[in-house]
Amino acid sequence: MSGPEQTDDGRPHAAVVYNPTKAPLERIRTAVAEHERQLAWKPTRWYETASDDAGRAAAAQAAAGDPAVVIVAGGDGTVRTAAAELRDTGIPIALVPSGTGNLLARDLGTPLNDIPASVSAAFTGADRTVDVGVAEVEDEDGVRQAHVFMVMAGIGLDAQMAQETSAVAKKRLGWFAYVTPIARSIVANRLFHLTYRIDGGRSRSTRAHTVIVGNCGTLTGNMLLIPAAVIDDGLLDVVIMRPAGPFGWAQIGTRLTLQSAARRSPFTRRWLSRSPELHALGYVQGRQFEVRFETPHAVELDGDPFGHVVRARISVAPGALHVRVVAPPSTAS
Asked: How are the residues of the chain apportioned to helix, strand and coil, as percentages rounded to the nearest 5?
């Protein structure tokens, strides 16, 4: 891929798309100005997101200026919206994590709580191509819409959490804001019926409490939900939670805890590789996941609610987005 086109005087410029309710703007401006001076780039262009479109217009305006990089300062929702505009453009995005989850940033190894380091990666890092999830959904009136996501699409507990947990609570409490919705959902343990198929194959029916389609595998709190999920493998990983009461939830909780610990413990990894699969926690993998429900169910994408749907087709666009990440260490002697 060729490098970014340059502005009229031969110098590149950066663009910043920022959520004014989340991004520490003055600290970001200071770090950006420092790199502008060091690299002799033209002045950065700044685009504030609007609440009524989640930042889509700001991202489109940024892309129209043909920047060398678009720095996205906000949470997972702001990143998702920017990705919708910048996918397939070849313009890289760089992340300055400013939300509560920052799941994509965590997966890519973007520095968290370190604005100078994340801004430095935006100006001096390496470009990486990653996959983008595409969710085509249909509501009970037959209205169809298509949305992108970068981390996960959720139906059931995950979507209910997104709908019932306020932005204020998430900002003040972080992951703890989800404790009440999770506890309420576990106690009720309502299962719903669904019919699904992978990559156009045979249709299968099951009952589930939660369905999550992941492009990344890690939840807030560094909990590993989908061990096989890799953001640039051209595949989506689906986890179907179908616990049979409190004991099933206990099995799920134990397995997720062990999966998270396995990243640091070879012994735990070996034990998990030999342990039987859980009926309460089923995994499937493919490029396209189609699902139908008997009754409408809430859906969320990267933590944002998108209403109730009766049908969804979720697919992957391999390598559709360029992301500027921390450059690997030099191997030169």
From this structure: 30, 35, 35
Alpha carbon separation from 261 to 69, 268, 269, 279 (Å, rounded): 36, 7, 8, 21
CB-count burial class (<10 Å; 0-12, 13-18, 19+) for 182: middle
149 & 293 share domain: yes
Q: What is the pLDDT of residues 233-261, one digit of tens each?
A: 999 999 998 877 777 778 777 887 777 77
How many domains does the chain fold into?
2
For residue 8, tell me if it sits in a domain: no
Same domain membership, residue 306 and residue 211: yes
CA 112 to chain centre: 15
pTM: 0.83
The strand ranges marked E within the chain are 14-18, 45-48, 69-74, 93-97, 126-138, 144-149, 152-156, 192-198, 204-208, 210-214, 218-219, 223-224, 236-241, 281-286, 288-301, 304-325
Residue entry with tokens 């595998």:
217
* Residue 77 identity (one-letter amino acid): G
Range of the domain at 34: 14-124
Can you read off the two tokens belonging to residue 76?
């997972």
